[in-house]
Amino acid sequence: MNNYSKEIVRKKIKDIRSNQTLFDNRKMSSKIKEKLFSLLDFKSAETVLFYISYEGEVYTHDMIRESFYNKNVIVPVSNQKDLTLVLSRLKTWEELSIGSYRILEPKKEKIRNTNIEDIDLLIIPGVAFNEKGDRLGHGKGYYDKILNKTKSLKIGLAFEFQILEKIPTESHDVPVDMIITESRIIDCVKNR
Questions:
Q1: Rounded distance, CA 77 to CA 24, Å?
Q2: Which residue range forms the structural domain that includes residue 57?
Q3: What CATH number is attached to the domain comprising 102?
Q4: Three-state DSSP class for residue 62
Q5: Total domain count for the chain?
Q6: Model-level pTM?
Q7: What are phi and psi of 170, to 5 degrees?
Q8: How far is Cα 56 from Cα 78, in angstroms, rounded to an integer?
């Protein structure tokens, strides 16, 4: 599939996402959080990478705040020069400020570099997914560059309308192992 196809899918899903009410977003995100927090893999993970949600994504702010109590919380910082993610340990919500792409990131003086090998579980965003775990991101490849460096469990969070039958993929795309929506938990490895 070419980039044109990816852009069409991105636009369609982002339009649906931006037309959600805040109430619906939070209600469905809360159901997704309950499913994630009930997973044995999540309960047993000591160090978890969370994306910090923005623009109608599955809302992770409450997940992150709750996880401070019993997890090492890691969040990404975008390095726009080389389109890579710096992984940083976050200790309190107050350490965040608006960063690249208008997404909350740790303030420069609060960045605590963490190695991908130290992360037990990765919570991954996506514009769209299929049931095999193929993921369509925002097109810059930030997450693909870190996902192929880890064997840890990768969980995509998505609303049901973001699960498509087919996703345009390329050879460097790294699938997630599991997807949690407001209505189900999809075992992507089993579906491959």
A1: 28
A2: 3-191
A3: 3.40.50.10420
A4: helix
A5: 1
A6: 0.94
A7: -130, 170
A8: 19
